[in-house]
Amino acid sequence: MASPPDTSKAAKLERCNSYLRRVNSAKIISASSRLLFRACIVATVALILLFALHCPPLLLLSHYSAAARSSHRGLLSSDVTYGGAAWEREVRRSATPRRRSGLTVLVTGAAGFVGTHCSLALKKRGDGVVGLDNFNSYYDPSLKRARQSLLSRHGVLVVDGDINDTLLLTKLLDVVPFSHVLHLAAQAGVRYAMRNPQSYVTSNVAGLVALLEVAAKHADPQPAVVWASSSSVYGLNTATPFSELHRTDRPASLYAATKKAGEAIAHTYNHIYGLSITGLRFFTVYGPWGRPDMAYFSFANYILSGKPIAVFRMQDGTAVQRDFTYIDDVVTGCLGALDTAERSTGSGGKKRGPAQLRVYNLGNASPVPVAKMVGILEELLGKKARKQVVTLPQNGDVPYTHANVSMAERDLGYRATTDLATGLKKFARWYVEYYDRRSKKEAEGAASA
Asked: Which InterPro entries match (predicted)?
């Protein structure tokens, strides 16, 4: 009888082959997985590169936002907390009018030049005033803090905050039913826009929108808004004197463009939401507590310190002229605009009827050559300037400004009564006294250190 075939070797061989097949299959799968993973990585990188080429702003958004917030915090904002019962009591106290039928006004940019003077004038006549300012570093913040101290001594609270902070704006208009907003906060200066253009968009465009959004949709009742436009909107206009009816579609600087954009934005919020809005085009405002970046202010500094000053002229040799307007006259115009502002017609973000929309020039209606202004300062300060006459550069400055103020005279009761010599005399007196006191304080501080 034949013995059964020996299958042990065949079985072992089959098991070995099966094992090898499994090992090879696993290796293939593993290799395929690695290859697929690498392909995915390559594809992802390729997509990112492609996306970056076509949409760099989106990829840089988080980095830009962080950088912008940091820069904005230094120039345009503050990190001050607000709220609480004590804070609300202070806000209400400052906002309470002392006279019957007095206005209740939120003044943005209250620690600024025009804002300080308007706040003092409103408080003096018995209106309620609450200020808002971010004390940015565009120029010496200590001057703004000194203005804040002056306002505080007269019972005006200035809240440390930014107009782009919609939560703060909403809180303020919730705590106090303001009858009016005097919106003076802005990034000023023509030439600075060439170095930091984004600050103008942030403050003059986004800030205005933030304020109007809260006023239109969250305030109950809606306040009437009076805001600072600028004579710069006339730009390359050559028809003089500048009238509110002249074209303003040729700005000569980014600053002017943002102010012109502000006027268009104001029209939009008036049309859609029924906000009563009045724009004021200021012409070269000067006086005590002024802005150090303005020519008359910096010239006083340079004359006293012996530094040379640049006096501009046109390419054809004609003098650059400005319609210098004294601060008290501008304040009269601002208060006139507030007093004649009609009520807004909207509620809860809905327009109930047509609302008032106005724009006015506030100027002196008497242009003066800049060289004459320098001569007046020389006499007042008792020292000659080291003048360097140079051609006006193409950096946004315009050669000539001249306001037609007939509409403001008719509707606001506006009158410019201060000539340049009188106004500069008041400025020079303040300038010498302010910086003399400041120098003494700094010397005392150094001695005690």
From this structure: Epimerase_deHydtase, NAD(P)-bd_dom_sf
